[in-house]
From TrEMBL, chain A:
The keyword Transmembrane applies. Keywords: Membrane, Transmembrane, Transmembrane helix. It comes from Paenibacillus sediminis. The chain crosses the membrane at residues 39-67, 96-114, 126-146, 192-214. This is Menaquinol-cytochrome c reductase cytochrome b subunit. Gene3D superfamilies: Cytochrome Bc1 Complex, Chain C (1.20.810.10).
TrEMBL record, chain B:
Gene3D superfamilies: Rieske [2Fe-2S] iron-sulphur domain. The chain crosses the membrane at residues 25-46. InterPro entries: Rieske_2Fe-2S, Rieske_2Fe-2S_sf, Rieske_Fe-S_prot, TAT_signal. Residues 101-170 form the Rieske domain. Keywords: 2Fe-2S, Disulfide bond, Iron, Iron-sulfur, Membrane, Metal-binding, Oxidoreductase, Transmembrane, Transmembrane helix. This is Menaquinol-cytochrome c reductase iron-sulfur subunit. It comes from Paenibacillus sediminis.
Amino acid sequence: MFKGIYNWVDERLDITPIWRDVADHEVPEHVNPAHHFSAFVYCFGGLTFFITVIQILSGMFLTMYYVPDIINAYGSVEYLQTKVAFGQIVRGMHHWGASLVIVMMFLHTLRVFFTGSYKAPREMNWVVGMLIFFVMIGLGLTGYLLPWDNKAYFATRVTLQIADSIPVVGPYLKELMQGGQIVGAETLTRFFAVHVFFLPAVLLLLLVGHFIMIRRQGISGPL
Amino acid sequence: MSNQNDHHEASQKPPGRKEMSRRQFLTYTLGGATAYMVSGAVLPMIRFAVDPILHKGSKGNFIKVVEVSKITNEPQEFSFELQQQDGWYSSTATLSAWIRKNDKGEIVALSPVCKHLGCTIGWNNDKGYPDEYHCPCHGARYTKDGKNLAVAPKPLDEYTVKVDNGWIYLGQIVPNKHVS
């Protein structure tokens, strides 16, 4: 039945070349763990992307219960984690995935560094990768505040204090991030907006750039 | 020719078993494993999302409202507070009921929500229609027992009533059982 539907659409829109172009490409022998087991180090980029997808999905579901409001934020997180079916699992996925995505990204960076894959002609992809790194750190920072517990509150105070220490612009940057004079209601809504709208949008754009460049330039050769 | 082949295969293999190609086997195995892993990630999220509709509505508790001795044949309005739990947010809602003793001596507590479009009705609040419930929004009218006279399609709902130790307790709102 699916084949029938697929053929019907394909006859009209010729979609086969589109997904062929995305999915059908040869994996060189030196990056295939089936040939050389040590080639598993080439999986870290894909794993980072996989966990990113999990983060986006679980995050979307978490917003069904979460409210970014200083009175109710903690209560809503506690509620979704203890009262809602599979709440612990879904928040667990987002919580642990957040750390894991940093770990995987770091390993991916190490692989790229030690295989020299950042060298010409792939310098631009290294730069985009670094931008992705900063966006991920930003996602981690803004997401950390959202449960609005003591750890989140004081961690954010410390972070903003660090931003404050930047010469000249520091105090302005701090107040901009804080959305006011104190870490409070406006900080929480601001971090929430940045966490679920601004940074994910930037992240997706950067990822598209990252992947297009990989396809244009191919995977770097063996050592 | 084909008959011979069929016969040949049938003699070697148990009937009803078809050869599966290596490609097909791998497709099924990889597809199955992928489906298993994807469902492992997705099912918790789906269950998480639909959780509220799977919760049974809480059976309304009875709330102490007023002494039986204060109830007359004439409807009187009494308000009472309901503790409600809305997810992680608990609050108190103020509800009211028009309570009277009917001719059979039963205590009837009517909900003040008009059955037309949900405005709040009042007793004896329209000079043109004495001794009736009247809704100021669209002129719906009801008898003392809550029977709909004009505009509204159904009689007023009532609260389930429990009398205990000289006090009236009100529970859930149910369709009116005292008028036909």
